[in-house]
Design goal:
Helix content is 40%, strand content 14%. The chain is built from eight helices and six strands.
């Protein structure tokens, strides 16, 4: 038996946003009974076939296959968030100085500190000049020295956001944008939990049933993504 005009309209509307209740309302069903009507329609084999046919036709237009969709979600789910943003422990100024003395980046930095100390000296008193016994060559990105007597191998924490232009293909799928807020830089990531959920649904790992209002129970359609 062919679909009725109303059922055809429901299929058309459902393919817009995959919202069954709203599709039923837009197709002309009563708002009060839309949820029940939607569940009834989705359990109709002919309606399911029409929806699947519409999905296949749409996918063919953009040359998207189920395997491509699944691969996208798998890449997102298994991407390493540390590629986008991570917290790291870095060394303190004493970690790699001679005899664990304060280490300067270079002579220019040391000279600036000396001049600043002279400028801050009180009138009539000699300035307390900083020492360069720790030497030069401080690298702020090295991991802490485990035997440093100043930081005890802890160094200090540092939040680092990567240059998103250099992310791997998988990490680029995880990255969802960034913006500056009153609290600083905010990095947004797509949900890996949602990605795993979509994969599980795609593979039919969920055997539960969806209970709608009115104690009406219908089997879930496969997630068509």
């Amino acid at each position: 038996m062919a679909l009725t005009p109303k059922q055809k309209l429901f299929v058309k509307e459902y393919l817009v946003d995959l919202n069954a209740k709203q599709a039923a309302i837009r197709a002309g069903y009563s708002v009060k009974t839309a949820e029940q009507q939607a569940s009834r329609l989705l359990s109709n084999v002919k309606v399911q076939e029409a929806i699947q046919k519409g999905m296949d036709k749409r996918a063919a237009k953009v040359e998207v296959t189920a395997e491509m969709v699944l691969q996208h979600w798998y890449d997102l789910a298994t991407a390493d968030p540390n590629e986008v943003i991570h917290h790291r422990r870095v060394c303190c100024r004493h970690c790699f100085g001679h005899d664990f003395e304060y280490q300067w980046t270079d002579e220019a930095e040391y000279e600036q500190a000396v001049n600043a100390a002279k400028a801050m000296a009180k009138k009539g008193k000699p300035p307390v000049l900083p020492s360069d016994a720790g030497g030069y060559g401080f690298d702020p990105l090295i991991r802490p020295h485990p035997k440093c007597p100043q930081c005890h191998g802890e160094g200090h924490g540092q939040l680092h956001a990567a240059d998103t232009r250099d992310l791997s293909p998988k990490a680029k799928k995880l990255y969802a944008g960034a913006k500056y807020t009153a609290q600083g830089l905010e990095i947004k990531l797509n949900s890996q939990e949602d990605a795993w959920d979509r994969i599980a649904r795609h593979l039919g790992m969920y055997k539960d049933e969806l209970k709608l209002k009115g104690e009406l129970t219908v089997k879930k359609l496969e997630d068509l993504m």
